[in-house]
Amino acid sequence: MGELSYYSDNNLFGSIVASNMGLTSLIITTIIVMLCGWFFLQRKTKAPLPPGRLGLPFIGETLEFMTAQKNNNSLAFFNSRVAKYGEIFKTNILFAPSISFGTPEANKFLFANENKLFQLCLPSSAAKLLGESFICQVGEEHKISRHTFMAFFGASSLHNFVPRFDNATKAHFQQFWEGRDEIKAMETIQHFLFSLVMDLFLSITEGPEFHSMQHDVEDYINGTFQLPIDFPGFAYHKAKLGRDNIKRTLDTIISRRRKDTKERKVEMYHDLLSFLLNTARDEEGNPIKDEKIKDNIAMLLFSSIETTSSTLSMALKYLFLNSHCLQEVVKEQMEISKTKDGAPLNWEDTRKMKYTWCVLQESLRIQPALEQAFRISIKEFEYGGFTIPKGWKVFWSANRTHMSPQIFPNPTKFDPSRFEGSGPQPFSFIGFGGGPRMCPGNEFARITMLIFLHRMVLNYEWCMVDPNEKIYVMPGPTFQKGLQLKLHKK
Ligand code: HEM
After folding, report:
1. Residue 50: left (phi > 0), alpha (psi -120 to 50), or beta?
2. Alpha carbons within 13 A on the beta-carbon side of 433
3. Residue 304 in contact with residue 444, Cβ under 8 Å?
4. Where in the chain is the domain with CATH 3.30.43.20?
5. Strands (DSSP E) along 295-432, which ranges?
6. What is the chain's Cα-based Rg?
7. How far is the CA of 433 from the centre of ligand 1 (A)?
8. Which bin fits 355, alpha (ψ -120 to 50), beta or left (φ > 0)?
9. Which of 223, 368, 362 is nearest to 310 (CA)?
10. Which UniProt keywords apply (predicted)?
11. Could you tell me if 325 and 359 are in contact, meaning their C-beta atoms sit under 8 angstroms apart?
């Protein structure tokens, strides 16, 4: 028994040890399996970077992109990558790792997450020249400043300016188009827009300040987004001098305006400067500081002219190439003209120009005035099954979206009827951008372009000297020979 019991105890001990060892190894194995699973899941849940090529160190694919863009062919750059990598891909253009978005869903995501996941990123050299203007601000500061300016550029405020714009447009045609049988339309339109904004912003339509500003604004526009070489002869250096001259001229104009206000001549002025000096307030409810007024007026001169002149010039080209569309525009404008009996156009008239507005939007769809704009991701996040790292650039691209055959069938065909009725699906037409940074000048651009086309089609027939005139994009679309037109007065 004892032996037996010894044997049994020994056996029991052995079996306890054996079963403990079995349990321990079971626990260890379970932990190892769980750890492996956890690591595996961790690896699985961290989505990969979007596919694509970052290209050469630092310059990446910048040269290839810039060459394609300059030749008005950035779509080929994008299409080849979309075909290879899909709708979301990585690249390195403009010297930074970047991610390209192009579908309406991705555009919506980008615009809706401004300040949450993305923020505007301007090259620091350009931001330096744009100073304290609201285009350089982000977050709440941007929202408040932009709101101040929107009070002036919104539809309700521009309402009253329509007859004044129409009179200015008639005067422009008399001075610059009358009696000419050939014209470089794009630069003449730029001059027209410069005159219009100088009137709207500062009530200045002629004289030395007008001419010096014209020259300085041109330098400012041409050089701000160029290579930041601050040395005589380089575009960026000229832009800096231009910006300084604009601000000096604005100093003189502001002092004169203050004197006029004291002498109660202020009611003479209905313009942006008067609004900024007398009505607008900053975020703390104080009058806006002069430095901010000057930087914003200079920035608005900068943003308004090239974009609008390019869209109008493209519309003249497409109307010439599509005579059935031109006939529709003429019919619509004649109907309006018949009701006017020589009186200037008003706000309600511009509301009736529905087909003409479709023509302008279709022109902007095919040849966007701003092809893409960049944001920077302010935190890491996932989108579309990919990780978007913090600090990478993400950009929307108007020509990628506008030229997608899934969104706009037969995308190269000029077809203004795409914009009739409820128009294209949301976030598929992004000619004016979207979200909190959507173009605040779109209403102003809309009315000025409609009024211009009204006067143009009622008074002139035109044909392009070279219907295949080349277009460069640097960075906005520009006709190689300035859009040469032969004119025939009706
Ligand atoms: C057809 C004419 C125009 C086109 C196609 C156009 C296009 C655009 C686009 C696409 C953006 C968005 C850029 C982005 O997302 O980063 C933008 C922004 C802007 N536009 Fe326009 N624009 C036009 C006319 C104007 C005019 C007439 C003005 C001024 C009166 C103006 C002032 C601005 C400003 C200040 C911004 C920056 C807004 C912000 O950052 O909050 N634009 N424009």
Report:
1. beta
2. 20
3. yes
4. 48-130+371-408
5. 372-377, 381-383, 386-388, 393-397
6. 30
7. 8
8. alpha
9. 368
10. Heme, Iron, Membrane, Metal-binding, Monooxygenase, Oxidoreductase, Transmembrane, Transmembrane helix
11. yes
CB count, 10 Å around CB of 371? 22
* The token pair that represents 385 in the structure block: 């099954």
Q: Read off the amino acid at residue 393.
A: K
In angstroms, the CA 37 to CA 58 distance is: 38
Q: How far is the CA of 307 from the centre of ligand 1 (A)?
A: 8
Q: 440 CA distance to ligand 1 centroid (A)?
A: 6
- CATH code reported for the domain at 48-130+371-408: 3.30.43.20
Q: How many beta carbons lie within 10 A of that of residue 119, not counting itself?
A: 16
For residues 277 and 287, what is the distance between their CA atoms, to the nearest angstrom? 7
Angle, alpha carbons 301-443-70 (nearest 5°): 55
Pocket probe mutation, ligand 1, options 307, 312, 399, 446, max atoms within 8 Å of Cβ: 307
Architecture in CATH of 139-368+431-489: Orthogonal Bundle (1.10)
Residue 318 confidence (pLDDT): 98
Average pLDDT, the chain: 91
DSSP secondary structure code for residue 370 in this structure? S
Report the C-alpha gap between 370 and 12 in whole angstroms: 85
**End-to-end Cα separation, the chain, in angstroms:** 130
Q: Where in the chain is the domain with CATH 1.10.630.10?
A: 139-368+431-489
ipTM over 0.90: yes
* Backbone region of residue 268 per phi and psi (left: phi > 0; alpha: psi in -120 to 50; beta: other values): alpha
| Ligand 1 closest atom vs CA 375 | 16
- The confidence score (pLDDT) of residue 6 equals 39
Question: What's the pLDDT tens digit per position in 324-377?
Answer: 999 999 999 999 999 999 999 999 999 999 999 999 999 999 999 999 999 999
pLDDT at 95: 86
